[in-house]
Amino acid sequence: MRTSNGEVRRSQLETAKHKKEDELSKIRIQKFGAERHANGRKRPKTLGELEMESDDKKKVEDECKEWVMKQAKKEMYGGEDAPGRNPWHANIRKTMFWM
User: Which of the residues 36, 58, 74, 86 could staple to 78 if both were Cys, CB 3.0 to 4.6 A apart?
Assistant: First the structure.
């Protein structure tokens, strides 16, 4: 999504995801060095770096899932209109109906 002046607008999930990816990328760069040589060419990655990269992707994916589930629980069960872990509005909470 873009704003009126053309800037990319990120959701909270995207922002958290990019922040975590950047954080893990910096750790990899500290351990293995920059991805590109001074002349701009990419350097070959070591097996350890490829494994760490794969593990980092899994960490980011797991954190995103955890964040989404936390938000879903808050939306579904949170707030004053849904006490007792009942997601329905007070007007229909005790009514049985079929969808």
Answer: 74
Task: Say whether pLDDT at 9 is over 90.
Answer: no
Residue 88, φ and ψ in degrees, nearest 5: -85, 155
The Cα 81–Cα 74 span in angstroms is: 12
pLDDT at 83 over 60: no
Closest CA to 16 of 55, 70, 52, 77: 70
**CA dist., res. 98 & res. 85, Å (int):** 20
* Residue given tokens 């969808």 in the structure block: 99
Tokens 């097996």 belong to 47
What is the C-alpha to C-alpha distance for residues 16 and 69, in angstroms, rounded to an integer?
14
Instruction: Give the separation between CA 28 and CA 57, rounded to whole angstroms.
Output: 12
The rounded distance, in Å, linking the Cα atoms of 42 and 36 is: 4
